[in-house]
Records
---
Amino acid sequence: MFEFDHVSLGYPTSRNAGTKYPPIIDNLTLSLTGGEFVCVLGPSGCGKTTLLNLAAGFLTPDQGQVRFDGREINGPSPQRGVVFQDATLFPWRTVLGNVMFGLRRQGVDRHQARLQAITILTQVGLGEHIDAWPVTLSGGMRQRAALARILALNPKALLLDEPFSALDANSREHLQDTLLDLWQKRPRTVLYITHSVEEAAYLADRVLIFGPAPNHLCADLPVTLPRPRYRSSTEVQNLARTLRQHLNQLPCCLKPSKDPS
Ligand SMILES: Nc1ncnc2c1ncn2[C@@H]1O[C@H](COP(=O)(O)OP(=O)(O)OP(=O)(O)O)[C@@H](O)[C@H]1O
């Protein structure tokens, strides 16, 4: 589904303006298959968001190619829905209006868009809040609305950059379960960036661990634990411990010392 084919990317900085940029991602080759739930772990600044931005089409590689369904990515697409840590909703539209917006832009008629938006809002647990204004929502509700807005467009892939990390533990766990539930009902490729080894162990089919920039894929670990999983189970806890050991072995200075969840 996603193919990173010898991808390199560097950002211009004031120090190297006009010269060759030092790569953040350096000659990365990686494939993600359809329906796979992939979590990405790595120290701060190693290039996780850069990876996601390449998959989203917000960035273009300096070298190599990023492909989705066999076609080179050359910009954002509703087929690849993105949710960031601080999702922004249109403040002048209600929750329903926010979700309907993308559907209307795709040419769905008003009545149908309304029905589809209400269905997905109900699925993410906001059925009682469709007429609420974004300013009145809690952080968790805003993230739910942002997820609904993306899911309403029925993307083939979800690109999630620490989507629940700003939430309290309870809301975060609820949202993880909502996401898993929706993903199991309609499997799609998920690229999920997190700093939490527990979150990765609970959610992932596969965990990618990146080392410090230039981005180095240090570990590519399939997760074979059956679902449903239980956060406090020995298996999930053991996997989280293994992931933490991988992170602690990385030659970097900004290791997560304490899991945020
Ligand atoms: N637009 C930009 N211009 C210049 N440098 C950038 C830009 N975006 C990111 N960088 C640099 O690229 C490196 C990788 O950033 P990126 O956000 O991809 O890392 P990350 O692994 O997601 O970090 P974190 O876990 O802290 O979110 C960092 O050193 C960052 O300062």
---
Amino acid sequence: MNVAAVRPAAVELRGVTKSFGDVEAVRGVDLTLHQGEVVAFLGPNGAGKTTTIDMILGLSRPTSGSAEVLGLRPREAVARGLVSAVMQTGGLIKDLTVRETVAYTASLFADTKPVDEVLADAGITGIANRKVGKCSGGEQQRLRFAMALLPDPALLLLDEPTTGMDVEGRRNFWNAIRADAERGRTVLFATHYLEEADQYADRIVLISRGRIVADGSGSEIRALASGRMVRASVPGLDGTIEARLRSLGGVDQLDVRGEQVVVHSKDSDAVARFLLTETAARDLEITSTNLEDAFLSLTGDK
Ligand SMILES: Nc1ncnc2c1ncn2[C@@H]1O[C@H](COP(=O)(O)OP(=O)(O)OP(=O)(O)O)[C@@H](O)[C@H]1O
């Protein structure tokens, strides 16, 4: 039996849009997250990540379309302690210790996991007696993570949780999140960083200008934008040469400026062979696309 078929999706967005006046922040997002997935919501500034996460958290409502969390309306899922969030900033009292902060938060809920257990799960038992004001940015984020674990949520949302952390802070933070997710929690995190998404998520949902432009594993996303750029000067470049370049197998993008041509192709050899043998091309250069290029070409910023 297919287990996914009988359990409600952790998140189900159907045709979701969200406008603020004439700004269309989210433009028709369909997204299903299955229980137990660790998913990165990757996109440049202003892509619509926070707006979407706010709707999953029930903090705002879609202008059109529907959002469900574990088969419930988002607010109901949050009220039942099924969802919690680690936000980027806000709300910590510097003079309390780490343990006092978690214990205080726990006292606000009717029923929570034991304080020591969430401290251990967030990897901050060793700093439990440290004042919050003395904790690094990374330690403070792990503290927020511990607080979010108190209701033992099925779904954890993180909005750019590692902004401003150094490399080691990031690594410790993600190790704690990954170790916890191994036990079956669904995690959705927003990030600007392709490397972070690639390293820590099972699945990457790439959003740009309010639309999902790619969805898959890190290697699938890279493959979508894989290939090489071939640049050359082509004296006598005309419509016929352009049309022949476009018709070569593997060519997915062609930019022409005067005599300069830049071709993006999965088969750069075929492009180079054609240019060098059938046109007057010179100064030919072949470069490979890296992760950053892949991201930029998929989000349309390049
Ligand atoms: N309350 C609001 N009123 C007006 N416009 C808004 C509001 N909230 C978001 N927007 C706009 O909606 C678009 C998407 O913003 P959003 O914060 O969701 O993007 P993001 O992907 O989270 O970006 P970032 O990575 O910079 O946080 C942006 O153009 C933003 O300016």
